[in-house]
Design a protein that fits this description.
Helices cover 62% and strands 8% of the residues. The chain is mostly helical. The chain has one domain. A hairpin with a 6-residue loop joins β1 and β2. α1 packs antiparallel against α4, α4 crosses α5 and α5 packs antiparallel against α7.
Length: 183
């Protein structure tokens, strides 16, 4: 099981010690997140729009998990939500993709040991949160059904996915706790 330890005195962050299977799982999840949040096909080819981050084709995603990661900014005003999305979605997707790529790079380089400090703290917490939100949406986890899902029989196809969700929750919580206690 992953071990999250505090860094030496004076340095804010944490060190992760991951088993081989945990590294493989996180690498897989990072790769899937990169594909999942990457720009939509057919994005506008207008170089000025791309340069300033405007996506005139951006729409509220139909996929519930992607909609959870890229929510409408204005729930009571669809026009304002669409306008806001045009100006923010491309950058939001790029940030989520960049986080997943950085996690992937760190895992490949770390051979089971990952030093999370500085800007990488935001990267890791963002990636873990995005991944948990995606899995939680796929599993339709709520406060009311969490315990029920936790006791799924092993032969239920959702059981393994829930175990991954729970492990990511543990990893994220452990990382946050270490960060709160580091100098």
């Amino acid at each position: 099981m992953a071990v999250v330890s505090a860094l030496s005195a004076g340095e804010r962050g944490a060190d992760l010690a991951l088993e081989e299977v945990e590294v493989a799982l996180l690498l897989s999840l990072a790769g899937q997140m990169i594909d999942f949040v990457g720009p939509e096909e057919g994005a506008d080819d207008d170089p000025l729009a791309a340069m300033v981050g405007i996506d005139p084709l951006a729409q509220t995603p139909e996929d519930p998990a992607l909609r959870r990661l890229l929510p409408d900014a204005f729930v009571d005003d669809p026009e304002a939500a669409d306008e806001f999305r045009r100006f923010t979605e491309r950058d939001l997707r790029a940030t989520k993709e960049r986080h997943a790529r950085r996690v992937h790079e760190m895992l490949e380089a770390g051979q089971g040991r990952v030093h999370v400090a500085g800007d990488d703290v935001t990267v890791w917490l963002g990636f873990l949160n995005d991944t948990r939100l995606t899995l939680g949406t796929r599993l339709e986890i709520t406060e009311d059904n969490h315990d029920e899902l936790a006791s799924l029989p092993d032969d239920d196809p959702r059981s393994g996915l829930f175990q991954v969700y729970d492990w990511l929750t543990f990893l994220q919580e452990s990382l946050v706790q270490r960060l709160l206690t580091s100098p």
